[in-house]
Design goal:
The chain has 261 residues and is of the alpha/beta class. The chain has 13 helices and 10 strands. The chain has a 6-stranded mixed β-sheet with strand order 1-2-3-5-7-10, sandwiched between helices. A 4-stranded mixed β-sheet has the order 4-6-8-9. It is globular.
């Protein structure tokens, strides 16, 4: 268990947990042990009241290149692994926002893991590819549904049916990642965004994330109805003139700083 614990490193600091996949010698390939450990870590974070934002990244040259093909091919033995559904639930079910810091290759299963994050910031070294069709495996962690919703079905088909690589700048133009930064600026940028998130009102932030996630999984009509009900309930319990007045000055000051800089 001690060795498995080192497969995923967790650094907690002032409400932010930085989670690092730590098999750099294997480009963070998702062995059964690593998959198990990811699910364990995210399940633990879900119960950690001190963690408000999570940053997910990889050690070395890759975010993760996906499932360990040596295990899949029987070249090395695999330990018992949790199901793909359980892994996906552990990551996407987190109530805290998850920022994906894509430092390098995010391939196939690694691409799917990236898509489980709430949004992505990419290094200039990042590259994405869906090689499911080349390996002969049908996606099982949500890529076939999440990717078209992010970049459009035609672009998603191009990537998934060719297996071609997508560079970071194109990924940004297509709306897959929010921004592209130099490698040494990746974690500081994600850290600053996490601090920006922490500066917002916690209950409101969690409710906005919840209804965005629920609406994403349904139709627009479902989402609008969900938003209306959530907004009404939240206003009745969390919005008071005193709270709004207390926040107004900091909001206005922040707006001036960001628009004048």
């Amino acid at each position: 268990m001690a060795d498995n614990a080192n497969l995923v490193l967790v650094d907690r600091n002032n409400g932010i947990a930085t989670v690092t996949l730590n098999r750099p010698e294997a480009l963070n390939a998702l062995s059964s042990a690593l998959r198990n450990r990811i699910a364990e870590v995210f399940s633990e974070l879900a119960e950690d009241s001190d963690t408000e934002v999570v940053i997910l990244t990889g050690a070395g040259r890759a975010f993760t290149v996906g499932l360990d093909l040596k295990e899949l091919g029987g070249e090395v033995s695999a330990t018992a692994a949790i199901s793909s559904q359980d892994l996906s639930r552990a990551v996407t079910g987190l109530h805290q926002p998850v920022i994906g810091a894509i430092n390098g290759f995010a391939i196939t299963g690694g691409f799917e893991l990236a898509l489980m994050c709430d949004f992505l910031i990419a290094s200039t070294e990042a590259k994405f590819a869906d090689t499911h069709a080349r390996v002969g495996v049908v996606p099982g962690w949500g890529l076939s549904q999440r990717l078209p919703r992010l970049i459009g079905v035609n672009r998603a088909k191009e990537l998934s049916l060719t297996g071609n690589y997508l560079d970071a700048e194109t990924a940004c133009r297509w709306g897959l990642v929010n921004r592209v930064v130099a490698p040494d600026a990746l974690l500081p940028t994600c850290q600053q965004l996490a601090e920006d998130i922490l500066s917002t009102d916690g209950p409101t932030r969690r409710e906005i994330k919840r209804i965005m996630d629920a609406g994403w999984n349904g139709t627009l009509e479902d989402g609008l109805a969900l938003e209306f009900e959530a907004s009404r309930a939240h206003s009745q319990t969390e919005v008071t003139p005193e709270k709004v007045a207390a926040r107004r000055a900091s909001i206005q000051s922040r707006g001036r700083d960001q628009t004048l800089s």
